[in-house]
Structure formats: structure tokens, C-alpha cells
Amino acid sequence: MGNNRFLGLAYLAPYLIGLFAFTAIPFIASLYLSFTDYNLISAPKWAGLDNYIDMFTRDRTFKKSLWVTLIYVFTTVPLKLAFALFIAYILNYRLAFINFFRTAYYVPSILGGSIAIAVLWRYIFADAGLVNMFLTSLGFEAVNWFGDPANALFTITLLRMWQFGSAMVIFLAALQSIDKSLYEAAAIDGAGKVRTFFFITLPLITPVIFFNLIMQMVQAFQEFNGPYIITQGGPLKSTYLLPLYIYDEAFKRFDMGYASALAWVLFAIIMVLTVIAFWSSRKWVYYAGDKRS
Amino acid sequence: MKNSLFLSAAVAALVVTSAAAQAADLRMSWWGGDSRHTATQEALKACGAKYGHTINPEFTGFKGHLEKLTTQIAGGTEADIMQVNWPWLPLFSPHGEGFADLNELSGTIKLDNWTKEQLESATVEGKLNGLPVSTTGRVYMFNKTTFEKAGIPVPTSFAELIAAGKVFEEKLGADYYPFQSSQENAVLLISQIATQLSGKDLVDPETGKVSWTKDQLVLAINFYQSLVDAHVVPSWKEAASDGNIMLHEDPRWANGEVGGSYEWDSTYFKYSDPLKASGGVLEPVKILKVDGAVTEGVYRKPSMLFSISKNSKNKEAAAQIVNCLMNEPEGITALGATRGLPASKAAATLLSEAGQVNPILLKANEIVMASEGPSMSPYNEHPQIRDIFKDTMEEFAYGAISADEAAERIIEDANDTLSELN
What we know:
Chain A: One of its GO terms (cellular component) is plasma membrane. The structure holds two protein chains of two kinds. Chain A is mainly alpha-helical. Helices cover about 75% and strands about 0% of the residues of chain A. In chain A, a hairpin with a 7-residue loop joins β1 and β2. Chain B is α+β, with helices and mostly antiparallel strands. Chain B folds into two domains: about 20-135 and about 300-370, Periplasmic binding protein-like II (D-Maltodextrin-Binding Protein, domain 2); about 135-300 and about 370-420, D-Maltodextrin-Binding Protein, domain 2 (3-Layer(aba) Sandwich). Chain B has helices spanning about 1-20, 35-50, 65-75, 90, 115-120, 145-150, 160-170, 185-200, 215-230, 235-240, 250-255, 270, 315-325, 330-335, 345-355, 360-370, 385-395, 405-420, and strands spanning about 25-30, 55-60, 80-85, 125, 125-130, 130-145, 260-265, 280-285, 300-310. In chain B, β4 and β5 form a beta hairpin. The longest helix of chain B is centred in the first third of the chain and has 21 residues, at about 1-20. Chain B is globular, with a radius of gyration of 24 Å. Chain B starts with a helix and ends with a helix. Classes of the chains: A mainly alpha, B alpha+beta.
């Protein structure tokens, strides 16, 4: 019995060592470093709350970057979830070649985080890229997607939206698990497709919407590759998301203390929004066996 | 007999022990492309064999190398010999103590192969932190073929360049520009104009503050704007329409829609190679000057240094290898011009005698070396200073602030940062 217990621990050891060495220790170390002035070369110097005070009182870039990040998250997440649900709803029908379409729509998610896709995106939306070629062929003016601050963030948002596959697959599984008799009963009562969707489908998949919402929100707050490769945060910092700012502070300006403080503020924002989402979920998420009416 | 046998054995043992103590296991790190990687490994083999040392190579591309080196230096695990970018000196060695002082190894490294000016550029507070591998500078390069298409010669002055803007627009079309300058290139161009007008570098070596006056900087910024207005360079916004793309990867450069740029002489082939497909020929020209210039204001600097770690347990052995790579035929021949034209006199002589240097590269380098200008501070390329300049110029280019406000902000913020750094 005792041996089995140790055997279990031995199996867990590689994961636990990795968790402590590469997640827990850096996590705690970054909290300590956020209260220091640390440039990697000299030893960290205790700075108390200076980094946090600077961030909220003097740092114009932080305010801009935080604002851009919030706009990005609050546009990307709802759009992506709505689009993923829309496609999942269509793919839930018994269409010809349905498995091919399901795979095809999932592929961008597999490729999504890669540098190559970000580079491809840059070429598609470039001045003489595919999108502008299409627009001009229809008689429209070419659009400056990356050079105009009003468009650049939207272009990055589209890249993230295009990677809707993983959320879609989860929605699809949820849609398929809905009891068909509910739809039959609704049809007998004379409910149309729209009413069925809003009064049967949507309430029954709220746990999955909630799960996707949390996952997509956390991912969106951590977006890095797209803006880093495509725009480097420009123009006029219109795509300068917080993870880019953290990276620049840490590895371009070697201000590890400040970068750690930024990372902890980002962590706190994600944490607060997640808590709000969990709190609000009591009002709109329905689980099987729920007694609410 | 017995005694002499014993003595011989003792001497032999001493020789073996001494040889073993001299043979060192070293590490050398650098960044570069494939040709540099291959050549450096060959050179390390040759120099290692000459001195009986083993040198383990650690090489990467440029991207990410600074992060890697920083992490190593922070952890005290850096290689014995390091290729260090010159502007990184203030980051790693603000007071000269970040690297071994090579003056102390001058018995092994022949320092007389470098000029006083070259050694000074790598000296921080009296400590020689590295040896310049090559000297590089920014030169104006023009696509001769595009200018021929426009029916005008390659410009030799800013006045000619400005006149070319209209000709390009009328004869070749609105998409054609005789030059490009945005982001870092715009910063370097404006810096050069300010240097030409003031005769001074950005940082005053005496005070450690910005040496340009607000008026000089305003003139330089307005000069940049005049290039945009005269269709000489695409606006910042227009240049950004292709996203974050390097000029040499930009199809507009490859097909000749952009007629010229202001680049490092050592990167000549990086910019000339993409032109081959469209039949373009890239020509480096003398530094262009503005009216009222008191100097050419060439931006010249050591392209990179070979430094020795202050933590190395084998500094003497590392110095032997550095000397071999930079001053001795085994190293010089193997390295060739993979790091540009060598700064070491011994290497430059040997390579030019052997015909190992491309004439066009030589021409570009001659322009840099023959041009005049004040000594440049490594703070020009300090990430914080560069960001202040670039971000402010971007705001100016997008019309968010005036030239006056831009100049004021650059000087004020750069002075604040310089005070923090020193």
C-alpha cells in the first residue's frame, strides 16, 4: 500500500517539479520583483510600491496600453464567441460533407498561434494585399489596415476571431448533447427556429458559453504573437497590448521590476473579471438539475 | 644515472602538467547568419589547434541574442569570449566593470592593430571592454536602375533628392518614391540632419545631456517633413500600411518602387540581393548634406566587439583566441569578411591582399571611413532613448503634435533618461 503511494508520487514528480520550477517559483519571484528595481545585471533593489505608483500616476504608455487591451478583449471575446456559436449551429445540421467542414473550420485554431499565420495575415492585409485587391476590384478604395490607428486593432481582432475553431468544437458538442425531444415539443407548440434557439438552445448551453467566455477572455488578455509580428504595437500604440508592453519593459528596457509589476496588474485584472464572471454566472448559467425556473 | 633519470622524469612530469594547465576549455558566443557561423567555427578550430584549447561555439540569429546574453550575464554563465553589439555597452557595463579589462591582457592581444579612436570607442571609464571587430556606418544607397527609368542621375545632394520626388511621381507614378524613411530610419535621418546643423552628436560627452538645441532639432524634424511633402519619402502612415515589414523583405523595395535608403554599409548585400530579380543595381553614394551643414555627420561606430567575460577562469587563454581571431592569419583567413571589413590593421591588410573583400563593400566602407563627423555615443541606440525618439516622431508624423512639441519632448525625455542611466 505504502509502495503504491510512493509510486503515485513518482509518477507525479515530473509534473510537480515542472510546476514548481517553471510556474510556482517564477510566479512568486515575480511578485517580489514587482516591488524592486531590477535590471537583470545588478542585484534587485527594494523599491516598495514605486513601480505601482509610477504605473498609475506617471506612465502614459500604461494607460494607453491598458485601454487598448480592454477594447481588444471586449470586442474580440463576444465577437469570437458569437461567431463560433453561429458556425457550430450551422455545422450541427446534417449537411453533405459535414465532417470535412467541421475539420476545415477547426484548422485555423491549430495554426492560429503560429508566427507563420501572423506573417500571412500581414501579407493579406498589406497595402497591395489580397483584401485590398478584392476591395479595389469591386470599385472600393484600398484601406490602410495597419497604418491607420482606427483600423489596426480591428485587423488584429479579426486574426483572433478567425481562430474560432476550439470554441466552435466545444459549442458543437454542447449543441449535440441537447435532448431532441425538447425541440420536438417546441415544434408541436408552434415555436419557430428563432424562438427555439433563444428559449431552448441558448439556456441549455449556458454552462458551455460560460466556460468558453472564461477561456477566451484569459487568452485574449495574453495576446502577443499577432500584434508583435504584424504591427509591433503601432501605429501610435493603437495595438500595444499589455503583454507587448511587459515584454518590451523586460527584454528591451531591462526593467524587470516594472515588467513584473505590469504582469501582476494584468493578472489582477484577469482575476477580477473572472470573479465578476463567476458571480454573474449565478444569474444566467443553468446547469442540469437546476431548481430555478 | 639514477639521479638523472629521476630528474628527467620530474622535468617530463612538469612539462605535461604545465601543458595540461595551459590547455583550456573555453566557450564563445555570437550571433549571425549561416556564413558567419560556419566561418567562425572553422576559425575556432584553427585557433584552438594552434594554442591547444578547446572552444565550444554558441551561436544564434540576431533576434533574441540580446535576451540570451542578458540572461547569461545575469546568471554569471556567459561564455568566455562574447560577440557584443557596441550599443549594448551601457547596458552591461555602464561603469566599465561588466567585462574583463583587455588593457590587462595587452601582453597577449596586440592592441596596436587598432587606432586610438577605435580603442576609445570600446573603452568605458578607462577599461577596455572589447575590441572592435569592424567599423560600420550608415550610407545612402540608391537603386541606379530606378533612377535611370526616371531619367535622372543618382542624387549626390539633398537638393537633388528633393527634386527627384516630383520627377518620380510624374514619370513613374504616385507609388514610386526616390527614398524611404520611417521608424528607425527616420530617427537616424533626423539625427544626422541635427548633427550636420549643430556639428554635434545627440549626447554631449562632457555633460551627458542632449547637445542639440530645440531650434536645431525643430529644423531637422521639419526637414524630414519637407521630404514627405515633396514626395521623396512615403509618409509614416503610408509606410506602415504593410505592417511591420523589413525593407529588404518588402516587395516595393524588390521591384524598385522605393529608390533608395540609408543603411549600414556592412548590410549592402542584404539590400542589393532582393533587387536582382528586377534587374536593380544598388549604388552607395557619399553622405548627402543639407544647406548650412557644418559637418557630414556620418553615423560611424564599431559594428560589434569581441569581449572577454570578467567571470572567465581562463582569461589568458581567451585572450590568445581573441588575438588569433583578430590578428593572426589562422583566424583572419577563416573568418574572412563575415563580420564586415575588419577593424584590425593586420586583418584588413591580409584580407585585401588576398582579394577576400568585395569591391562594392569596400567602396561603401570607404565612404563611411572617409566622411567626417563627431564621435557617436552608444546612447544613440539605447532602447529607451530610441523609443523616446521613435514614439515622439510617430506622433509628429501622424499630426498629433507639432515639430516644436516633438523637439521639446525628445530633448526633455532624453535628458531625464540619460540622467537615470548615468
